[in-house]
Amino acid sequence: MEFRFLPAAAMAVGLLAPLAAQAKGPIKIGFPIPLSGPTAVYGEPILKGAELAVADINAHGGVLGRKLELLPRDSKANPAEAVRLARELIVKNGVQFLAGTLTSAEAPAVSTIAKENHIVFVAPSAKIVALTDKANIHPYIFRAASNTTIEGEAGALIMSKMKGVHTIATIAPDYAYGHDAITAFITAMKRLRPDIKIVDQQWPRLGQANFTPFITAQMSKHPDAVYCDLFAGDFISFVKQATPLGYFKAIHNRLADGGEAGSVDVTRALGNTYPLGIWVNAYDPVLWDGPNQPPAERAFDEKVAKAMKDKYGSSWAIQGYVTISAIAQGIRAAGSTNEAAVSKAMAGMTYPTPLGPRTFDATTHNADAGEYWGPAVRSPKFPFAVIQDPTYYNPQPAGH
Amino acid sequence: MTVSLIAAQFLSGLTTAMFLFLIASGLSLVFGVMRVLNFAHGSFYMIGAYMAWQVVHWMRPEGESFWLAVLAAGAGVAVLGGVVERLLLRHLYGLEELYQLLFTYALVLILGDAAKFIWGTGQLSVRPPPVLDGQFVFPGVTLPYYNLFIMLIGPAIAIAGWLVLSRSSAGRLLRAASYDREMLSALGGNVGLLYTGMFVASSFLAGLAGALITPMESIVPGMDVQVIVQAFIVIVIGGLGSFWGTFWGAVIYGQALSFGILIFPEFSLFSVFALMAAVLMIRPWGLFGRPIR
Question: Which domain, by its residues, includes A240?
Fold first, then answer.
């Protein structure tokens, strides 16, 4: 077998040599993320947040005396493209870490590349449970995002306290994310309020801009309240069609949406047509109606707004920032960029974020990342709705 | 199932149908007359939506400026369509259909990127015009004024289109061109002008549809591709190139979707795709189309 071993060893040396030469250079982090197509609306602010984190860390001398270097690539929200980019970043650009991807389709695909190549990969926004479940967990995958279990449970906690609710309907996009979140919601609801009945479930396709028949079908079942997981443009289209049909009036605005419908991009688009009183969430409310805004967050959001050259910034930049902060903290804790050492350091690690400390679970590698929830209200300060007294809901806090 | 429930679903289905007809009518006309399957029709629709938003945005505060925005979007997209046809598409008429398909697909990518460059990736929204911002409330059924308006606009366009095609001299020429382009040309018909006019009219309809959808749907990148798939299903069901087929195809699509949701909420689009598959198996040329000789 020697004749096989020798070329392999030579190849290994050949591959390792450039890595050793790089040790003095910057620490490279590959960042595939959608920068074109419909999902770029989230890809761009997440990348902006990641760039801000790199700038902040480098301004403070980098990590272990080395600068961080971000290599962003346009994944087009396509899992195959994200995989190709991840491979290219590893082989051609010699990145030692991967972060990014947006959707619940891209992240699991890139996770397999991280596993093969023993490269730490941190996902900022994919919520699908399967990314880190028993079948798919490996030492190198970490999730900085929230997840569908946290989201569904938070929704159930909120709705279980709504007054006069005996029947609930659900509406969520018909793919893994929507189904996972609704399953988590119903499981938690059955535990919290076994008396509540689920009377209707609608599954419009993702990107289905025509919600009218779904809305009238749901109204015909006369639910007292609705749990919703529509997000972004879909949520906006849904509201625009549901309001004139009297949908919100019929449920007395007793609706909770776990799809970041409280993000500034959504509230701004709907302006004063936003249905007030419904409960919505956001990773970062950005505009706070209430006194509890953490000062670090205010400072962070001002930086984001400046970097994006936009008056209000984005509720998503925080996820890019947190992702890079977690990798930097992992390298510091490990005392080296060795993949196995960093992966080990990150499992169970607590890391600071502008919204307070977060912790990666030691076994599931999920961050205990809840989101800010509250009822949508009109604010005298802004020409659109904001979340009233945003409250951090985290039904699964990590044992610190 | 009560009467009011059936009425509510029927009206939802009809709203869906008439929007789809507005979009699919232009696509169907261009295919019927020019034999060009225009993938970029959805992109024209998207550009129309963005243009409408732009006009409304310029004329803030929002109000009845919506109507001006609708006309401007229709006209703007018509001009865009005219430029595309005159400068680019006309060079491909003699070639295989595949080249035209590739060209219109390239247009999809170019216009998608152009829209992103001009209007960004954020979601935009336009409010319904105040005059239509209300609803009729019957027991168990609510009908927003705007939905009713769309239900009336659809048949109005269908009848106008049919009158032009069947009663006007331009319509006679168009029908002649769809049967035999060379013969018409040999007989002295100006096929080039006819094709440009057809493409401009189709683009106008796309821009109009894009603008009219804005009070009901968010304006987002990707709405082009989302809508073109539905429009294709409509014209496949109705029959490629058949104008009334497109109308009834849209009505059938809307009602199949609406009642499919009611009966099998867990398979929202199943009914529509099942319908398309059934039509393709039984009448591959569509319900109102003619078998290709």
Answer: 149-282+371-393
